[in-house]
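User: I'll paste a sequence; please echo it back and then give the predicted structure.

Assistant: Echoing your sequence first, then the prediction.
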Amino acid sequence: MTEWDVKKLRILRTLRDRGTVTATAEALLMTPSAVSQQLTNLARQLGVPLLEAQGRRVRLTDAAHLVLRHAEVVFAQLERADAELTGYLRGEAGEVRVGAFSTAVPALVVPAIRLLRSEDRPGPEVRVREAEAAEAYELLSSGDVDLALSLAAHAPTARDPRFALVPLLADPLDVALPAGHRLAETPGLRLADLSSEPWIFGGSGPWSEITTAVCEAAGFVPEQAHSASGWTAILAMVEAGLGIALIPRMASRERSDGVVMRVLDADQPRRHVVAAVRQGAERGPAVARVLGALRAVAESRHSTIQ
């Protein structure tokens, strides 16, 4: 296959545009002899004569013009590649695959994507995958996602060399009561006031652990009356008077008029949301742009909570 040397082809194109070897050398900050040598080598590589004498000057052969017609296509593609690479280095291109648990998608990920799209410069393509918080690190390890939102309770230790963790948000946990509950309007409601109530939470997994830990910190073990993992199902049971439940503030917008959400100011239970990436990936321009948008959304939510 013929060897095409882009550097030498640029010299040939400059000679065509400038007209003389001397003017070409000046434009490219080379010596005339170096220009001549490079073009001689290019002719040898391509196997065709590129220049012919015309008095004291040289002119391009028909073969040289044919070569340049094809070279222009290459130059144009290289310009596009250079522009795209520059955009990538600025975090304006590339793809970031985000894995996020269900409540984080509408509360954090979607607003972050909207924020990126609203900026004056282009942003990377973001692909979203809903996944349980406990799956985040498996997905990162396998390369199925580039960034994952998880709960700090499921995060590896800071000494784990595989991942970098970025704290995002302390999401308050409110208690959901049926609208007609005897404690629905009680001022200064505390978790301890609800120790004898039937509770609704998952049979296993993160939410079971969080509910149990929060209640135990308040001095009691919750009696599990019903088991469910989805917020729609949990809130429907609360509305029906089947029990009460802790609901993350990020999920509370799913509630109906038949459910009263009470803020537990005295207890202030929280679940901590973190972003995780493979170690070192946080310095990648595209991932850094998405992380920045997630931080901005989380900070906005934090300010609203306060």
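The chain has a mean pLDDT of 88. The two ends are 68 Å apart (CA to CA).
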